[in-house]
Structures are given as C-alpha cells and as structure tokens.
Amino acid sequence: MQLENVTKQVKSEQKRGYDDACGVAHALELIGERWAPLVLRELMFGPRRFSDLKADLPGISANVLTQRLGELEERGLVRKTKLPPPASVQVYEATPWGLEAAPVIRALGRWAVRSPRHDPEQFVSAVSIMMSMQTMFDADRAQGIEARIGFRFGDLAFTADIAGGELDIRRAEPEGADLIFRGTPDLVAGVLYGGAPLDIIEFDGDRQLAERFATLFPLPPKVE
Questions:
Q1: Which of 16, 45, 116, 140 has the most neighbouring CB atoms within 10 Å?
Q2: pTM score
Q3: Mean pLDDT of 216-223
Q4: Packing angle, helices 102-112 and 126-136, rounded to 10
C-alpha cells in the first residue's frame, strides 16, 4: 500500500504544472516530458507513421510513444491524419503551431552541442541530421553556391536547396538535384561533423560540390 501511494504521488507530481506565468514554464508544460521534444522533432519535415517514429526513436517504448503522441495531440501540437490512397494509413503530423517549435528545437540543439558531455557517436535519425544541417549552416561559407542537393535514407528522401546564402530543406524527392547522397544518417554526420572522409558515403554528382558542401556546417566551440 505504501509503494502504491508513493507511485500515485510521483505521477501526480509529473502531471502538475509549474504555477508560473513565465512562457518558459508553460513551454516545459507543453513539451517538457521525457521524449516529447524528440517526438515533435521527428514530425518537423512531414507526417510519420507510428512504426516509423518508433524506429527513429529506438530508446522509446511503444507505450510511452503512444502516451506522448496523445499528450501532444491534446495540447494542439500534433494531430492524427490519414495518407491519401494508395497508402491510406494513419499518420501523425505536427500542427502549424507545432511546426513553429522548430527554431526552438534547433536553438536548443546548437546550445547543447557545446557541452563536453555531448556524444556525437550516438544514434542519429534522418530527421535529426537534416535539422542539424539547418542548425549549423554557415551562410558565409555558402556564398556563391546555388545548388540542389538530395539525400536518400532508406524510404525517406530530402531535398536541400542552397541559394543566396540560405538553406531550405524539405522532405521531397530530389528531382533535378545536382548532387544526391545515399547512406545512413550516422555516416553523413561523420562526414559533416566528425571529419570522416567523403568516400564513406555514396553520392552521385559533382565531387567538388560534395566536398564544399561538407564544409558548410562548422560546430560551435565546446565550453571550457
């Protein structure tokens, strides 16, 4: 009985708000639970099936994922929908308001990557690596580049357009791309951030463009 009371108390504490008018406090009430920001992150480039979300968040259980999706839906950040035929399967997508959290998630990632405890060799999803490019993109280094670059990670395809010192990324087939990378997100991360040689990933297109592209995402210095 005592253990049951403690469990109920812990759950009650987890569901309580901060009783604080600060917007940061409310933001944490919206997406502060464990896994919630990462679930929302995975929806930033378009709708995903439950099984896809589970695969790209390997540390989460199906029960917790179901709970987090339900909470985010209740708070107006995520909604269920169905893909058009021939797929006709249920998917989850971020609402327009949910998508507005993208800059917040990117800024949090840029801030946290400066930690000496950050381990870049851990798992990285396709969405995560694409968002990291948006986060770390150096407009000055990209001056003079106008190109369309595609990425294929299994069933997921992304297109990145560089023009005028800006980078636009969307989930789309890379039609007319000047360069297409094929591989796994961790290998792309190794090239962009770990100093790995370009040849560890497959690509079709201009090698000189590929080599320059790999230099456009410098990491901020670690804190001392």
A1: 45
A2: 0.90
A3: 97
A4: 80
